[in-house]
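REVIEWER CHECKLIST
Item 1: Sequence provided? yes
Item 2: Single chain? yes
Item 3: Sequence as submitted:
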Amino acid sequence: MTAKKPGLYANIHAKQERIANGSGEHMNKSGSKDAPSVEDFKKAAKTEKKTPAKVSK
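Item 4: Structure as written out by the authors:
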């Protein structure tokens, strides 16, 4: 079995954390060639793993 790569949202959150820590990077504007497309987000939504809802007391 091969190691699974992190998903789209994991990559976005990791980059946001690096930016917050002063990496000098920036988020790509939507529509630029390197930014995720609408289709990428739709695909990520289809493969999302559902986590059980937490029950509050």
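Item 5: Key structural point noted by reviewer: Residues 8-20 form the longest helix (13 residues).
Item 6: Recommendation: ____
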